[in-house]
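Hi there,

I know you've been waiting on this one. I reran it after we fixed the sequence typo, so this is the corrected version. Both the input and the resulting structure follow.
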Amino acid sequence: MRLDHIGIAVNSIEEALKTYQSGLGFSLSDIATVEHQKVRVAVLPLGESRIELLEPTDLISPIRKFLDKRGEGIHHLCFKVRNLAEKLQQLEGAGLQRIDSIPCRGLENRKIAFLHPKSTHGVLIELVEEKL
């Protein structure tokens, strides 16, 4: 597995970009909306991985719930895997709990699934299948 991205929950992408672009010097490659996840995402390349700024688009967005409970900050780590179904089966065999019963599609229509933080020492982990 390799790090794909770090997801950071923010109240406003525009406000966060002032820090990440002007202050820290990151470039912006894209801003997109993932309708079914009720999130707007700003993508900031970082070597072979990236930072994703996550802004809720709805009051019932999981990102909105996270922000209301914890405030802005790191939301999840995402790792690339070659075969998502195979990796999920392996991880379940090791006792890790999935949030999603079946993988869904995320940003860029990539196949994703999340592991429950209760089984990963408090860290929400996303797995994304690599495009070969």
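Quick highlight: The helical segments are 13-23, 62-70, 84-93.

Best,
R. S.
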